[in-house]
Amino acid sequence: MRVAIAKEGNEVSGHFGHCTEYAVFDIANKKITKKVILQSPGHEPGKLPVFLAGHKVTHVLAGGMGPRAVDLFCENNIEVFLGISGPIDEVIRDFITGTIVSGESSCTHGEEGHEGCGH
Q1: Regarding beta strands 2-8 and 11-12, do their DSSP bridges make them parallel or antiparallel, or are they unpaired?
Q2: Domain 2-97 in CATH: superfamily?
Q3: Are residues 91 and 12 in contact, defined by beta-carbon separation less than 8 angstroms?
Q4: CA-CA distance, 100 to 38, in Å (whole number)?
């Protein structure tokens, strides 16, 4: 499996589409076999799910993202975990051990779009 975490420094980013890079982990037999940093191609509707699917990502973890983005990831066979926060090293460890706790998206989207997300 290949897991992408939206990052800001060493922490999980509050909004998947606004971070500048992603920590991507290859995981096999509950161990990290490879870690790479991917630079974001930019925040454009529909671009990130296709970009990450092209990098064979199977799961994404972030503080938040809009409902349309979640749908697009699902259409690209990528599972989404939202409401994630904390240091990336701890988050990936919790993901691998199955103790990660998803919460509500830290990005709230109103009826008219991306209210509260800086879009």
Answers
A1: antiparallel
A2: Dinitrogenase iron-molybdenum cofactor biosynthesis domain (3.30.420.130)
A3: yes
A4: 23
Long-range residue pairs from 112-118, CB within 8 A, at least 24 positions apart, any chain? 114/66, 117/15, 117/18, 117/64, 117/66, 118/15, 118/18
pLDDT at 23 over 60: yes
Q: Which two tokens stand for residue 82?
A: 């939202």
The pTM score is 0.84
Q: What is the C-alpha separation between 56 and 71, in angstroms, rounded?
A: 17
d(CA 27, CA 5): 13
CA distance 103 to 113: 21
- CA separation for the pair 92, 10 (Å, rounded): 12
pLDDT confidence bin for 105, thresholds 50/70/90: low
Sketch the domain layout of the chain as residue ranges: 2-97
